[in-house]
Amino acid sequence: MDAAFCAAWLEAAALAVAADRERLTDLDAAIGDADHGANLDRGFSEVRQALAAGGPGQPLAVAGVTLIRKVGGASGPLYGSLLRAMGKALGESFTLAGFAAAFQAGVDEVARLGKAVEGDKTMLDALGPAARAVAGAVRDGAEPRAAFERAAEAAREGALATVPLVARKGRASYLGERSAGHEDPGAASSALIVGALVTADGE
Ligand code: ADP
Ligand code: MG
Ligand code: MG
């Protein structure tokens, strides 16, 4: 696996976010401030432009810095840190095991920065299970394709499992108990971004 795979992942993630922009915004309208789809769509458009400009640097690190700089909401710095940490951990070429370790390092960075744990009803509820699914697939000797399919499934399940939770971090936490009964927008977007790994692997 190499930097071209990372670029393909980011491209697939950008398309997925653009396609589901309205759904992400609707989820955020229910328990936040109705900007999650717009925040991410704009952020990933900036990522595409930054990558198309063809500058130096690992694509994930370029994307991470771009999201941190260009997205105002909570999700920009958090996704930016995820991708920047992954880019730092990955060289020009890497194995699936290397990718799994980088993914976990990125998720740990999100948790550190957001001071959140799984169960707080955030993107971590999708990202954490996804990172563990890739690591588990590596231990089972799975091919990247199967590993990414398992990660995508784990992320989707994790996102859906946020529905009954009461938010303890981010804007949704201001609602207290009233945040229960809605899927967390960041967990939903994480499921899209992790799902884009499967698309990227097919290219
Ligand atoms: P904002 O809340 O600033 O408008 P977004 O709407 O773009 O930002 O993103 C909201 C998402 O960010 C939430 O659904 C949640 O998944 C995630 N989030 C917010 N705060 C945290 C945090 N402290 N740790 C992890 N994720 C968080
Ligand atoms: Mg918002
Ligand atoms: Mg906002």
UniProtKB/TrEMBL annotation:
GO terms for molecular function: glycerone kinase activity. Pfam families: Dak2. It is an enzyme of class 2 (transferase). SMART domains: Dak2. The keyword Transferase applies. Its EC number is 2.7.1.-. This is Dihydroxyacetone kinase-like protein. One of its GO terms (cellular component) is cytosol. Keywords: Kinase, Transferase. One of its GO terms (biological process) is glycerol catabolic process. It comes from Nonomuraea endophytica. It comes from the Bacteria. Residues 4-199 form the DhaL domain.
